[in-house]
Amino acid sequence: MSGLITRRGLLAGISALGAGAALSACGAKTGGDTSKAAGAKADTSGATVKVGLLNSLSGTMAISEVTVHNALLLAVKEINAAGGVLGKQLKPVSQDGASDWPTFAEKAQALITDSKVVATFGCWTSASRKAVKPVFERNKSLLFYPVQYEGLEQSPYIFYSGATTNQQIVPALDYLKKQGLTKLYLVGSDYVFPRTANKIIKTYAKANGMEVLGEDYAPLGSTEFATIVNKVRSAGADAVFNTLNGDSNVAFFKEYKSAGLTAKKLPVLSVSIAEEEVKSIGTQYLEGQLTAWNYYQTTPGAANEKFVAAYQAAYGKDKPTSDPMEAAYISVHLWKAMVEKAGSFDVEKVKAASDGIEFDAPEGKVTVDGATQHVHKTARIGKVTASGLIEEVWNSGGPIKPDPYLKGYDWAADL
User: Fold this and answer.
1) CB atoms within 10 A of CB 387
2) pLDDT by residue (tens digit) across 306-323?
3) Taking the complete model, does pTM exceed 0.70, yes or no?
4) Could you tell me the CA-to-CA distances from 263 to 111, 245, 270, 382 in Å, in that order?
């Protein structure tokens, strides 16, 4: 965690300037030897091919990313049991990003250059994605990114299987507005996703008769929230929009309850707390609070029943499933379908084959949009129950076409 704190300058740089700032802040750690990297080729010559798994298995983000790693392993196991991909078995190669963005870039380069993987699956925070983005682009290697994010990005070498803004944040704001919760307080971690998301939220609010009464950020891994919670309590808001990530949520919600704030008095809508985080934080702190995702363990359907049963058989009957885990799981299956449609592991052929790829996912049918390399997804608002699971209280009625740059929204024209 101390490594995160000492790199706050890097976080700010990524937030302000995007991938270019990430590169300059990280120096050689993000790039390695460019000439060597440019010549890196995946090894498809044997009976097995390697796939990279790039997750934080340590540090402040491990609370969220270890289970995503497990879901990726489950998908690989299922695919191998069904005969592999183009007759080849998949060999997962795991690297620990350690909740540290330069480390993510280092490990991404190692997977491509040293392990010669055919594709990589992983990252969670937008800071980690921004740090590795130039690595995958320079090497012309594929990353499948499984977590909801702030949008305003497309990369020719990234497929985004989590929600973009119009599939999570915008529906969440629509829901709050419909409930009459129009005075918001914004609380987030101090890096790319929360700052960009809150810029979008403020723009939406201005155009939709809503008001943002306050906005505060805490460093990733922060455990001190007394000042922020006191400001929230005295602001006169109707709801809190929470973009905190990692184990900071534990400290925030404990302080929230200690201050006498409850879901009934002042609801919090979170976009990075799923079932695994509920378990870690404690149901007593979260019961009744709202979340916005595309999948819950309680989502009905045979595909989800099969997924939950398979995951719990592998990792324990008390282990919940969550949206990022599901989005990671389906990303491996979507890649498999792309490769088989292309009849090749070649990156450019796989990309060309991606449009229209469908999968009967635990969240419902998903379809790849080849133009944006995002996925059509159904938006869902949920409420945390006493059991620790999240029950859906609203959904969009069907998959929403991805619109990462919000081109279909007049109010977003200046973003």
Assistant:
1) 12
2) 999 999 999 999 999 999
3) yes
4) 44, 19, 12, 13
